[in-house]
Amino acid sequence: MSPRSRLVLASAAGMIALALAGCTAATAPEPAGASAASGTRSVEHARGATDVPEEPARVVTLEPLELDTAVAVGITPVGAAVAGNVTSIPAYLGAEDVAPVGTVPEPDLEAIAALKPDLILGTESRHSELFEKLNAIAPTVFIASQADPWRENASLIGEALGREDEVAELLTGVDDECARIRDEYDVAGQTVQLIRPRDETTLSLYGPVSFAGSLLQCVGFSIPDQEWEDGLQADLSPENIASARADHVFVTAADVADRSAIPAAVATAFPDATLVDTSTWVSGVGPKGAAAVLGDIERYLSANR
Amino acid sequence: MTAAARPGRSILGVGAVALILAVAVIASLALGANPLAPSAVIDALAGRGTSETAFVVWDLRVPRTVVGLVAGAALGAAGALMQAFTRNPLADPGLLGVGAGAAFAVALGVSLFGLSGAGEIVWPAFAGALLVTMAVYVIGASGTGGAVRLVLAGVALGAVLSGITTAITLTDPDAFDRMRGWNAGSLLGAGLEDLAAIAPFAAAGALLALVLAPGLNAMALGDDVARAQGVDVGRIRVGVIVAVTLLAGAATAIAGPISFVGLMIPHAVRWIVGPDQRAVLPMSLLAGPILVLGADVLGRVVIAPAEVPVGIVVAFVGAPLLIALARRRTARAL
Amino acid sequence: MVATTMDRSGRVMRPVRPTAAGRRRVLAVGAAASVVLVALTTLGLILGDFPVPLERIPTILAGGGEGIEHTVVVDWRLTRVIAAVGVGALLGIAGALFQTVTRNPLASPDILGLSSGAFSGMLLTLVLVSASWQALVAGSLVGGLLTAIAIQVLASREGLQGFRIIVVGIGVSAMLASMNTWLLLQVELETAMFASAWGAGSLNGVAAGPVAGALVAALPIVVGAFCLVPRMRQLELGDDLASATGARPHVVRAVALLLGVGLVSAATTVAGPVAFVALAAPQIARRLARTPSLPLGLSALLGAVVLLASDLVAQHALPMPLPVGVVTVSVGGLYLLSVIVLEIRRRA
After folding, report:
1. Half-sphere exposure of B123 (CA within 13 A, CB side)
2. Which is the most buried residue in A3, A62, B127, C62, by most CB within 10 A?
3. What is the ipTM of this complex?
4. Which candidate in C80, C206, C226 is best for mutational testing of the A interface (most A CBs within 10 A)?
5. pLDDT tens per residue, range C63-82
6. What is the CATH topology of the domain spanning B3-13+65-332?
7. Out of C185, C197, C325, closest to residue B184 by CB
């Protein structure tokens, strides 16, 4: 093929591409067939205001906190984004028939569309560029960031679901449960450490602003000071394990029955460390996860009274 | 040019390397994320220390020093073998698919069998490295064609495996989490028992490498020249593959994928002792641990109280060195 | 060691003027590839979780179809297909340029540090600046270009030597790859997995605007590459002969590399650093067309075919969708393997 005919071929291909791209840009996506004008209310969220149905029946959640909160108020979503493609909905939620719609960072738009939802919940810090596409399927509400305080996010989610009062009750319930455990077991002044093993040369300590850390503190424990990153966690070499010393040591693991998963450094320094479930203590952010964590804490305290 | 042609530089060089190695070993025992005083370290070594210092020195620093010595030596020698055999100064043991095979096996182990402890991963990694290199040999070795086809087969099979490994890790968060730690390399992965079990393989590989040295010298000018001198090129090829597999496979199994040592060390060594493989190979055994231990120590202190994994530091330290070497002169073939 | 153009068996190749028969063969292969491309495009429009029957496609493409149907087929699937075709073509051309300039069939953006640089730029932006799509694309562009510049600066003393640039590329690549591993360890697991998927090269969530922008920006570069072909053919004779015939090897190489970098950057803004297409497409083109010279158009076509096919496999072949880069790496490797095995059989 002579250079010139190649040039022609390339230009032709380029023209076609441009033409098609022009076609796609020219046709504006029609707004999704939302529920009728009556029976909607407006919700202010991270991407402005959206009209959501009064009683959402087919909800899709893209963030674990949203899934947890929805299930906690009694709305089982028809679809939820999961942590990974082979994982399913976390067992601690006790929810059934929730279809996976891709992963949390990369939701599967077509799967969501195929479910014909009437409300989609997502996260601005993760799903920002998907907002228009999601809104084309169904009214979409975004929380600002999953790193924000979970109680505030849960309130917004409650509002989007039309269950603000129930969410507020659940949150007060968490606080009440905390207070009850605090009064019953009186651990004031005792220190606690939450360790998450990462790899052979790194251990992560969880701080007072983290999900589980905040629950440990509200129960009355205090977490020793470290150089927290954003108050959330601090990394440590196993050589410095001694500086993680505390009255009570918790170590996260995937399987709480398997003590062999504890890294040698932690097992040597803290032979009495208690194993806790990563899926609730680290990933189970939400009202039901908080209840599970508080339940673990209470079981531990009553066993070690 | 043989080592005998410039004895002064070689002897000085060997002495310097040995000295630096000793310094590296001492640093690996004395320095770390936990700022122990030298007297505390000596006490712990002598058995007099507190339980905390004894833990740090005997359970953490001594094992990682030993692993660093073995892995560094193995990688250095494997790199020298690869570069001599392929007559290409850019060759690296990873080209035969060792790292990709080990990673694939580890990913499978974690996602299918739920392996996670460091000691559990060592044997799948070794097996993966061995199997893949064997496959590369079966696919890529033929009567003629030399090293090019072998390297291509290694690159190709490595690519396939790395694609599948990525697929596995992107679909299984536990596997991803474990692999991102393993990928960074770590001298604390293997305990001393695992090391004791795998070290004989590395030793066999090292011995084989030293035996192959004269044959590799003959092959430096081309396979035909070597055959004319009566060297059995086919046998040498098999020997090199076996040696590289044992050495690089053992190193990857105990320390994870540390990728720069095999590429860098032979360059530095050739600069000191010249292109005679009978000198290059033993020196690579000595010089390899310097890079690995040095990188490990650096990783321990630079962000104390946390650590940077050794594989990451090696690349950061090794790459500028490599680039500097490439700029100094047109890279010599051997 | 003198770098020469080698075919698979290590024979040194001499450049050959295309013969009439050769041209016919190239045209035939091109036509076949185009047919395959059309078939794959159709598949790309009908496959997916959201059911759309084949008969509806022409209506929808012409502008009809109810809201969500139209959105799915045109805004999502068609855009993704065009992105795959465009990115694949750009990568194919870039690979052909790199391989000719460095006289090494293994030269590709990955080795030259561009992919690692783009991924590093993206990761640094993700960790330090923001996770918004625009920031990430900007970060990856800056990262890739800075890396390419750094490699050029470090490698060139008296003009570009094909050999030194590979050494420097490997060195810089390794540094960046290790930094990437470190950054991946610092972020949350989900963010790390997302970043990794991007780093593998992914067409997930491509939007029409960025795709059109990238392709439009790349068009003049593509034209420039085609214009450069005769000069690059002269380079294959070796620098001395080329200078004697009036070509200026250093300038031609520099321009070709620049064009290649531009193409890869445009491709990276759409799909992230997709591996192997730039490496494999020109090689496949050379083999199918049996021409040792530079098959630029064919590389583009085959790059498009490979990437589109890989994306379809990545989306639909397995129970879970994968980033397309994972498939291209595996498929590219398999292709190379089959080539090697076949060649051995032929000789034996």
Report:
1. 7
2. A62
3. 0.81
4. C226
5. 777 778 888 888 889 999 99
6. ABC transporter involved in vitamin B12 uptake, BtuC (1.10.3470)
7. C185
